[in-house]
Each structure stands twice: as structure tokens, then as C-alpha cells.
Amino acid sequence: MAQFVAAILISIAILIFFIVKLNVHPVISLFVAGVIAGTILGNPLVGTVSTIASGFGGTLTSIGMTIIFGSIIACSIRDSGAAKSMVNFFISLFKGKNLELATGLAAFIMSIPVFGDVTMVLISPLCAIISKRQNKPMGLMASMTILPLNLTHSMVPPTPGILAVSLLLGADLGLVILWGIICSLIAYLLTWVLMKGWAAKDYYPPKPEYIEGVEAAKGSDYHDLMIKEDGLPNVLAAMSPILLPVILIAVASFADMTMEEGNAVRTFLDTIGNRNIALFLGVCCGWLLAYTHKDKAMASYNKASGKNETSLSKILFNGWVGEALEVALAPLIITGFGGGFAQIIKEAPAAGQLGDVIAAVGFPGLLVPFVIGAAMECAVGSRTTAGMTAAGLCLPMLGSLGISATACAVMIGAGTMVVSHVNDSGWWVSMSMFNMDTNRTFKYNTLVGGVAGVFAGIAAAIFIMVGVL
Predict the structure, then answer these.
(1) CB distance 237 to 292 below 8 Å
(2) Are 67 and 102 in contact (CB under 8 A)?
(3) Of 55, 323, 330, 440, which residue has the fewest beta carbons closer than 10 angstroms?
(4) Angstrom distance (rounded) from CA 174 to CA 258
């Protein structure tokens, strides 16, 4: 056991040192940390590297297509005007009140299959426009838009990080989606109630290029606040590339729990609810959305890419795919190496005994995944790396912790919300996209996100204790 604990502590310390102090790319940092962990555990070098390669390949097999398809869906949301339609829907729903919830809930939905960083790029101009048109405090708009996209990025599959955590733990994907949505939505609304007054005191200006030519609304009619643009899709069509995969995956999990194996309906639902098939059907919805809004899709793509493409088919089946591959490459490889590092920990003979040690000292087992997730997020900055490392540590302990794999995944996701700071790439993206300085980014990303992470962890813990999660 002492050797196992030493391997964990030393390898994680090296991982932190490489990423934070030496600014070494996570790919190399994870590989070196994995090799050192394997060496301390007494494994031969070739065997250690083979184990890392096995974990790398297994992780890419599990989530590779999901990441790529999610990136293509992001292109469809951008070019079809879907994001604007979602924001308009929530403006109308709330009758022009609490408009930070309009961009916030749109971001909450968008970030389920799409990387959080990409969602920030898509939603931040709309956030700035609403701030300008309603003279809404940008501190409130920024904080309550960044928060929900980080929550679903951290807690709701098929976002790659929490998806990889769920698969590594063997959790039911549909149940992780369900409880991730419930706990993250509770956390968002509680944090909004608690902190909206504080954030509303900051009237700093939106990013200038986002509001060029935008004037404040002259009346109080909420219709004047809506984003006026020809050819926007209706909200159901706009949400279809995002919601269809989530619904199919969740329905398939429900079928597995309620129908006998071999049932024809269950077999059909399991087929279309396979995460890769479901995400591809979401991609197809995005393509269909673009075909029905051809002019808008072509204009938006050409503006974003700087090209002058005249063939919609080339945009959809080549341009979007090529762009998605560029966006997906780094998360794909980093997640793969995270899986390799986790595999070293998972295969250690003493790994299963760590939970017994924790139980012996009386620390609540249900909090262990949350604490490890928070510690790793603070240390390495990447929610994907933090979550997968936490999952690798927690998997051998599940029996001793006394919680299900689903509960463990949700608690890890909540934990990775708690301490996002300067070593997190999303932290810097939020700073740029929402026109914040360093102090504001600590307030509206780190602090607000930390409060929400605690709320999400408390909500999940309550559901675990009452026996429903």
C-alpha cells in the first residue's frame, strides 16, 4: 500500500509540476507521470508503456467518434443561427426579465455535446448584445452565462471529459446524463439566486467588436430585445442536433432497465441510443438544419472561415468536418493520454485497498470522488484530465466507498467545477470572450463556479443518501 500511495503522490506531483511550473503540454506530462507511476510500482518500462498505450487506445475507442461528432454539431449550431434562436426562445419565455438566464440556459443546453470553450465563442457575442440592448450589467451576464456551460461541460455526457469518466467507471450513461442535468441545473439556479445581486453591481463594457452598431432598446417590450435576423430556425429545429442524441442515449438506458434482453424494442433503442450512432444522428440533424437555412449557413461559414465557398455540400461534408477535426484533435489526444495514465493506476494490485484505508479513518466515502475531482482540477487545470485521473483512483475503491459508479461519476464532475483558475485553458477563453480582466475572471469564473460546484456536490450527496442516485 505504501508503494502504491507513493506512486500516486509522486506521479501526480510531477504531473502538476510539469503542467503548472514548466508549462509542458498535458500530453507529455501525462505520459511522463504514467511512466514514473509504473516504475515506482515495480513494472518494467516496456510493460508500463504498453499499459499506457492500452489505456490510450481504449479511451480513443470509447470517445473518439463522440468528440469528432460533437465538434461537427458545434459548426451546425454556429452556421445555422441555432444559438440565436435558443437565446430568443428564452428571452420570450421570460418576457424580457432576467435575461442572464436566456443566454445562460442556451449555453447550458449547447455545452452538453459541445466543448465548453467552443460554447463560449458561440454565446459570448449574444451575451454582449443583450447587455448593450437592455443596459444589463455585464458582470451578471458574463458570470451567469459562463457558469452553466461549465456545469454541463463538467457533469453531463456526451461532453468528452465526463463521458470518459463514465465509461472508465462503467457507469450507466443515461443515468449520468439524467443526474448530471438535475444536479447541474439545481446548482445553477441556486448560485443564480445567491449571487445575482452581487454580480449585477458590475457594469463593465462588453467586448467592443461584439456590439459595434448595436443600440440600446428604446422600449420595454421584450420583443425589442430579441435578436433580429432573417432566416433563423425555430427553436425545436435549433435544439435538435443537441437534444436528439441526449434523448436517444437516455431512452436506451431506460429501455435497458425496464425491458428484457432480446426484446425487439430494446434492441432497436439500444441501436439508435448507442452514443456514437446518437451523436451521428445529431450531426445529420445539423446538416438538415443547414440545408433548410442554406443562405444563412453559407454566409456564416464563409464569414467564420474567411473563405468564399459557393457549394453548401462542400461546406457541410468537407468544411465542417475539417474544422471539427482541427478543434477535436487536442482534446482527443489529451483525453487518450489521460486514459493511459488512469490505466496505470487502475491496474495496480493495491489500488482496491485504498478505499478500505479511507473507510477505516471514517471519511465519508461519497465525498471521496468529489474531493479528488476538486483537487485534481485545481492541480492540472483540465477538467478532462482531472476527471479521468480521479476516476482512475476511484474505480478500484467503489466497493469500499459504498456508492454506485453513476454516483461516483456525478460527484467527480461536480468536484471538477470547484477550483478552476489560471492553469485552465477555459479560464483564459472566458477572460477573452467576455472582455474581463484577471480580477473579474477570478470572480465570475473561479468563485461563481466554485460555489456552484459545492451546490452540485451537495445536491448529488443528498440524492445518494436518500437512495435514488
Answers:
(1) yes
(2) no
(3) 330
(4) 13
pLDDT tens column, 226-248: 888 888 999 999 999 999 999 99
In angstroms, the Cα distances linking 287 to 79, 238, 317, 365, 463 are 10, 11, 9, 46, 39
User: Do residues 125 and 213 lie in contact, with contact meaning Cβ atoms separated by under 8 Å?
Assistant: no
- Rounded Cα distance, 369 and 52, in Å: 23
118-175 confidence digits (pLDDT tens): 888 889 998 998 898 888 999 999 999 999 999 999 999 988 889 989 998 999 999 9
Sign of CA dihedral 335, 370, 380, 111: positive
Cell 504498453, residue?
50
For 197, other C-beta atoms within 10 Å of its C-beta total 9
Q: Say how many Å lie between the first and final Cα of the chain, rounded.
A: 31
Query: Are residues 256 and 266 in contact, defined by beta-carbon separation less than 8 angstroms?
Result: yes
Place of cell 456564416: 300
Inter-residue contact 435 to 396 (CB < 8 Å): no
